[in-house]
UniProtKB/TrEMBL annotation:
Record keywords: Metal-binding, Signal, Transport
Organism: Commensalibacter papalotli
Protein name in the entry: ABC transporter substrate binding protein
Compartment(s) where it occurs, according to its Swiss-Prot or TrEMBL record: Cell envelope
Entry keyword annotation includes ATP-binding: no
GO cellular component: cell envelope
Length: 297
């Protein structure tokens, strides 16, 4: 009987200890589901969240014209299940507005890069080519991750620090190019690279032409003639060519530029596969430096 009572006491102690241990066990972190309208934002979200986030990027094909994108029911389902949504804004991904309204998404769970920068409708929508915009986005994502998963605060802070270290190196590289190459006149088939060109200190020509093309319009004969003349007379030193939106008119400009000996740098709106955002920006800057070197060896 004594041993029976002893065994019962031991068993009761184990149960009490187990209950206390369970009560004070470290919380299990939830994997956050993040939807990014564009894949460069999705990559940044993944870098900052690591194993604690699952990211789905909607616009992720660099070979497709992003302006021809069409929604599917599967995309709507993913958005309905998301914990956090990242959008560009400025009309670039206006199709997201319909989905967010449909699924009654809380505005606190939506990160708009446009809103972070207080940009207004009519501003250049290609915000990912502005490294300051990416800086602001990364800081905001880290704040939201900590809010949603406070137990992983140190992890998120460490990942943000690492990402911003890389971003600062890109900023330094941009400043070095800007200081080394002054009075550079450039043009583009669309204003995709405009914000980065501005950071580099380039003078952007033919902007009315670019905006008409971006908005699906037809440039005037005067705009076309002026663009061609500036290429042939070397008023333009680099032509930035949107590789995702190709038309007979933009192909003609590229051909004229190459025949005139003007450097042509291809850029895209969607980040190429198998690259991080940092690698993508450095790859683009590599092409810019090569173009500048060809003009000023």
């Amino acid at each position: 009987m004594f041993f029976s009572q002893y065994r019962k006491s031991i068993l009761a102690g184990i149960i009490i200890y187990s209950s206390c241990t369970a009560a004070y066990a470290e919380p299990v972190s939830k994997v956050l589901h993040v939807i990014a309208a564009e894949n460069m934002y999705g990559d940044i979200a993944q870098q900052l969240g690591g194993k604690y986030v699952q990211v789905d990027s909607i616009l992720n094909n660099p070979d497709q014209d992003p302006h021809l994108f069409e929604l599917t029911p599967s995309i709507g389902k993913k958005i309905a299940d998301a914990d956090l949504i990242i959008v560009n804004g400025l009309g670039y991904d206006s199709w997201m507005n319909r989905l967010l309204t449909k699924y009654h998404f809380n505005h606190q769970d939506i990160v708009s890069v446009q809103a972070l920068l207080n940009r207004k409708e009519g501003d250049n929508p290609h915000l990912w080519y502005d490294v300051d915009a990416i800086d602001a986005l990364s800081g905001r994502l880290e704040q939201l991750y900590v809010k949603l998963e406070p137990h992983e605060k140190l992890v998120f802070e460490s990942k943000l620090s690492s990402f911003q270290t890389d971003l600062n190196k890109i900023k330094e590289r941009i400043e070095t190019i800007k200081q080394k190459h002054v009075h550079i006149k450039v043009a583009a088939t669309e204003p995709v690279f405009g914000l980065m060109a501005q950071k580099l200190g380039f003078e952007m020509l033919e902007e009315p032409y670019q905006w008409v093309v971006m908005n699906g319009g037809e440039p005037t004969p005067k705009q076309v003639a002026g663009f061609i003349q500036d290429l042939k007379t070397h008023q333009i030193q680099i032509l930035f060519y949107n590789e995702q939106v190709v038309t007979p008119a933009t192909q003609q400009l590229k051909k004229i530029a190459m025949e005139a000996g003007v450097a042509v740098v291809g850029v895209s709106e969607t980040m190429p596969a198998n690259l991080t955002y940092q690698q993508w920006m450095n790859q683009v800057l590599d092409k810019v430096e090569a173009a500048l070197k060809s003009k000023h060896p």
